[in-house]
Amino acid sequence: MMSPLAFSAAEFRAAGHRLVDRIAELLVSLPARPVTPGEGPEAVRNKLRASASLPWKAQEASAVLEEATELLIENSLHNGHPSFFGYITSSPAPIGMLGDLLAAAINPNLGAWTLSPMATEIESQTIRWISELIGYPSDCGGLLVSGGNMGNWVGLLAAHAPAGSAWKVRESGMNAPGARHFSVYVSGEAHTWLQKASDLSGIGTNAIRWIETNDHLRMNVDALRTAITRDRADGFEPLIVVGTAGSVSTGAVDPLPALANICRQEKIWFHVDGAYGGFAAVVPEAPEEIRGLAETDSVAVDPHKWLYSPLEAGCVLVQRAGALREAFSYHPPYYYFGVEATNYVDFGPQNSRGFRALKVWLGLRQAGREGCQRMISQDIGLARRLHDNVSKQEELEPIIQGLSISVFRYRPTELLEKVGDPATETYLDQLNQRIQDRLEKTGTAFVSNAVIRGRYALRACIVNFNTTVEDVDALPRVIATLGRELHEASQSP
User: Fold this and answer.
1) Domain 108-354 has CATH 3.40.640.10
2) What is 1-69 written as a DSSP string?
3) Which of 248, 320, 364, 407 has the least CB density, counted as fewest CB within 10 Å?
């Protein structure tokens, strides 16, 4: 008797061909579809029949797969849609989709070399290629992880182990005799990963020093120096400075070379959250500050953002290859045929690790360095074009633009003279939030929001090789029309 989960070769081939056909149809039809169905949780649960019990009897595999395909295609937000301008989740590369299928078929465990010999070597090569792409030393250490949160956390823990070595923090913890209180420095515009990581690592969120930013929302270097000096005088141990290469809200890039210089002088670990913007280092038009990535002790980048890999695919690089082993390993090196084997279990927090690297490796080979550079450059150019178009609309106010992000808001023309008045600002915040909600429900386009200096604004981020000039040119008109309709409706008695 066959296992309940077994397929015959013919059944697998038929079901697989049908699924690939449906996915191919989806890719072709995306521009004509709504970005999202705009339905609430109850409607989606009803379509799933979410309250149904687990079936007792086996169900026919191809029918189950067909139902799942239909449910997902018709009831998902499609971040590969050319008018998806929301969060920093890229359009997925088709070769990455096929790569995930192949990876699942082989099913290697990349915790140990013996369980994944070729897969481990592909991951190692992928890490080296990523480092070359962003101008990082190619003899660095590295690890593929789930995404930015985990990549940044690994960087923090890599800083944590040697900094606390005087009291053996790995063995004795944060409260060992002679332990000092760490302090952590980051821009006020940084992502919230640091709060999670400080909490989970035992450092505590009170250790975070939120450094003020300048008019361009980049870390204030003088404020950082002052904070470090004050902490040392108060008996704290500065552990790590975290720079940002592409903030989530605005695409701002901190002055990385200046931060690297301070860290060298003060002997503090320098980490950069480049989950979004790190790959922009490959394009000439990126901010010059991003070249400072090469001077960091560690950096996190996300291939599932600007390398267009399907989720999940994050990466952390460390300047000194042995730093990850010092932070995570409980085993001696292993040697095979006179060559040390790479066992990624010793480089990070996971034991069982999936083959994330394959889809990244395939995409890098298909596009090459030139292709990666061209796609990222195109996204940045489209965001700048969008910002220029916004500035030409009297009802739209451009607020800030960085990398491939444009932030702006709708302002009715009759309220222009009242901008800055508290009541007017409250109304504009509410109006722009309603525009965002309505846009999402229509499925015409999808944007997110940012709060810039206390003002609620619309935020369009382009990390999408499907987005065209026509899509970018249409967005300001759509938002202006929606804003006008909602404003006029709010004025009706």
Assistant:
1) yes
2) ---TT---HHHHHHHHHHHHHHHHHHHHHGGGS-S-----HHHHHHHHTTTPPPPSS---HHHHHHHHH
3) 320
Number of Cβ within 10 Å of residue 367's Cβ equals: 18
Q: What is the DSSP letter of 273?
A: E
- For 158-179, what is each residue's pLDDT tens digit? 998 776 666 677 777 777 777 7
Give dist(CA 202, CA 184) in Å, integer: 13
Reference 247, options 313, 185, 312, 193; nearest CA is 193
DSSP string, 216-253: TS-B-HHHHHHHHHHHHHTT-EEEEEEEEBS-TTT--B
Element of type H or E holding 162? helix 148-163
Q: What is the rounded CA–CA span in Å between residue 90 and residue 356? A: 16
Q: Which residues contact 343 (CB under 8 A, 6 or more apart)?
A: 111, 112, 113, 331, 334
User: Residue ranges of the domains in the chain?
Assistant: 9-76, 108-354, 370-491
Question: Which of 383, 413, 407 lies closest to 395, judged by CA?
Answer: 413
Residue with tokens 């932030």: 407
| DSSP 8-state secondary structure symbol assigned to residue 465 | T
Contact 430/307 with Cβ under 8 angstroms? no
Give buried/exposed letters for 168-181 (b at 16+ CB in 10 A, else e).
ebeeeebeeeebee
* Separation CA 466–CA 464 (nearest Å): 5
Q: Which residues of 296-317 are buried (b: 16+ CB within 10 A; e: fewer)?
A: bbbbbbbbbbbbbbbbbbbbbb
CA-to-CA distance for 340 and 333, rounded, in angstroms? Answer: 7
d(CA 61, CA 5): 9
| Sign of the alpha-carbon torsion through 166, 168, 169, 170 | positive
Per-residue DSSP letter, 85? E
Which positions ≥6 away from 459 have C-beta within 8 Å? Answer: 249, 250, 405, 406, 407, 447, 448, 449, 450
Residue 103: CB atoms within 10 Å: 21
Residue 270 CA to residue 263 CA, distance in Å, equals 6
Fold of 370-491: Aspartate Aminotransferase, domain 1 (3.90.1150)
CA 87 – CA 147 distance, rounded (Å): 14
- List for the chain the helix, strand, coil content (%; round to 5): 50, 15, 35
Query: Are domains 108-354 and 370-491 of this chain identical in fold?
Result: no
Q: What is the mean pLDDT of residues 369-381?
A: 97
Return the pLDDT at 163. Answer: 65
User: What gap in Å lies between CA 248 and CA 191, rounded to an integer?
Assistant: 7
Helical (H) or strand (E) element with 315: strand 314-318
